[in-house]
Amino acid sequence: MTNNRISKENMRNFLEYLSSGRTLVGPVFTGKVVENRVAMSSEILMDDRIAYNSIKAHYFPQSELMFTFSNDEITDNSDISGYVIFGARPCDLEALRVMSIVYTSGKYADPFFQRRFDANFIIGVGCQKQKPGCFCTEMGVDAEFSDFCDIMLIDHDGHYTVEHLSEKGQNALNGYPPTSGIECSNERTANASSENMIVFDVDEDDALFFDAIDWAKVTETCKGCGICTYICPTCYCFDFKDVSNKNDAKRFKCWDSCMSPKFTLHASGHNPREHLYERYRQRVLHKYKYVPSNFDGCVACTGCGRCIRSCPVGINIREIARQVMSAMPST
Q1: Residue 120 half-sphere exposure, CB side, CA atoms within 13 Å?
Q2: Consecutive 10-residue runs of the chain (331 residues): their mean pLDDT?
Q3: Of 214, 216, 209, 225, which Cα lies nearest the Cα of 284?
């Protein structure tokens, strides 16, 4: 293999170079938490701390303009700026892979997601040690490596080694003289065991899961705040909001949550998921049953642990999923 080593000081300079045409995003310590946010290269953390939030908002914004309606004209929002995203962890990169499959395939493909995906430049960094609440290895995710990025780095404290390069990543390195000699063979592959992996049997009748465990019991402390859905890197539900003024109207796509009481409320007033436990059950089954059924086994959970760490009452989706698997006749 050719030289694939880059110092952290040189990486900061490289980030400044990349951000001349894009907005730089990375993990920053705010004084209270580590947050993925817009930042200067000097602010970005280059240690093993991870952000409480994922990189999802830079591909799937909380509020995104889709169209502007003016008289008889409809203008598609094609003004999408790109981000340089540094420090994405393997769980986030694999979550982005899930989002990409959902949003770029089938009859519901989303051109806005694709535009952002094409505009962004993403640099991943492997984890050195497991974080509280993480169960990525139980979801088949290699905590050190993912190839779903433009540059994948392994942290060696004082420097990084480059373990994967996309064509976009190699071109960027070649265009910046201090890093132009850095290459990568791209021979490394993800290494995670599938033993004891949390996977529901997609061939089982959906109805069997409804009473597999006492859903009301396991969610009795849940406050229904929905933070688990907003913090999750693979939750992708949204709603449309139309805003009008005297001259035009705009349509926005906004984050929504299956934990919201009004998420499934019908115009008739009927709500098929009136109770909180029904909504949480839907959340679990969607991740481990419905998405795998609809997208060739792709599981909408990468074990990042954010929902566990952020839940105000300590609900643990890993343990609940394990309970469901143990209760099913085929497991």
Answers
A1: 26
A2: 82 95 96 96 96 96 93 86 96 97 88 94 96 94 97 94 95 91 85 79 92 96 96 95 90 95 92 95 96 92 97 96 90 49
A3: 209
Amino acid letter for position 7: S
Distance CA 261, CA 271 (A): 8
The rounded distance, in Å, linking the Cα atoms of 21 and 120 is 10
- Tell how far CA 181 is from the center of its chain: 32
Angle at 232 between CA 42 and CA 43, to 5 degrees: 5
pLDDT value of residue 1:
40
**pLDDT value of residue 2:** 52
Residue ranges of domains in the chain: 5-179, 206-327
Amino acid 81: pLDDT: 84
- Tell which phi-psi region holds residue 171, choosing left (phi > 0), alpha (psi between -120 and 50) or beta: alpha
pLDDT score for 72: 82
